[in-house]
Amino acid sequence: MASALINVPPRVKRGEIIEIKTLISHTMETGFRRTQLGALIPRDIIRRFTCTYNGTEVFRAELHPAISANPFIVFSTIAVESGTLEFHWTGDNGFSVSQSTAILVE
Amino acid sequence: MMDDRVGDAVAVTPARATPAEMQEAIGKVVGSATVNPGRVTLDLPPLIENGNAVPLTIDVASPMTGADHVKAIHVFTQKNPQPNVVSFHLGPRAGRARVATRVRLADSQTVVAICELSDGSFWSDSADIVVTLAACLEDGI
């Protein structure tokens, strides 16, 4: 099972811009490499990453094979209200991981 | 004479995207709009030892309000097997148009970032990078 690391400040002031860092373990096999016998290794990558804030999408990324293994993505959002940030990664071979983090806005 | 042979050797290296393919990929995103230089800052190290994980940061000068914000940021390369690297979709909820990730680069090359603003205009920046150990060249498994 893939594991994800998410860094969100737990307590923030209302209206503050917060930086969110995400890291997920995944090989991001490009589909361009070959085995020593010459067979092409099939592509296996994460295609899409989304972040929703209390159900509203605030950030989305479409990934291609040129993203490094264990995709690391940094973005920001405005802290509007307390609630949950949900992170969702989907990709080849039915890869799907969701994780959520609570945020307290003062 | 020697120079010609060197040129031939370069031509038979594995399949790579060419600057023309990168322009085609950019054209699919931009359409008929013109891409202006400026407003975007693409931050890449000028020299990287390992092309498998190159830190990349993009900053766009934008107030990020409902009326004037960055809709999307796209990254393209000239010499990777595919020209597309990543597309980020933002909105006024982002607060600040700044994103970062780590990318693979197959060769020393020019990387291009293009951002789309809410008014439909496109802005771009490019950065040259020297890669000493290219991605995609490691031994197979």
* Assigned CATH class of chain B: Mainly Beta
Ends distance of chain B: 39 Å
> And the CATH topology of chain A?
Immunoglobulin-like
Rg value of chain B: 17 Å
End-to-end Cα distance of chain A, whole Å, is 35 Å
Q: What count of helical segments of chain A does DSSP give?
A: 0
CATH architecture identity of chain B? Sandwich
CATH architecture identity of chain A: Sandwich
Structural class of chain B: alpha+beta
**Any idea what the shape of chain B is?**
globular
Strand content of chain B: 35-45%
3D structure, described in words:
The complex is a heterodimer of chains A (106) and B (141). By secondary structure, chain A is mainly beta. Chain A has a single domain, classed as Immunoglobulin-like (Sandwich), CATH 2.60.40.10. Chain A has no helices and eight strands. Chain A starts with a strand and ends with a strand. The model of chain A has no long low-confidence stretch (mean pLDDT 92). By secondary structure, chain B is of the alpha+beta class. Chain B has one domain: SoxY domain (Immunoglobulin-like, Sandwich). Chain B contains two helices and nine strands. In chain B, a hairpin with a 4-residue loop joins strand 8 and strand 9. The N terminus of chain B is likely disordered. Strand 6 of chain A pairs antiparallel with strand 7 of chain B, so a sheet runs across the interface.
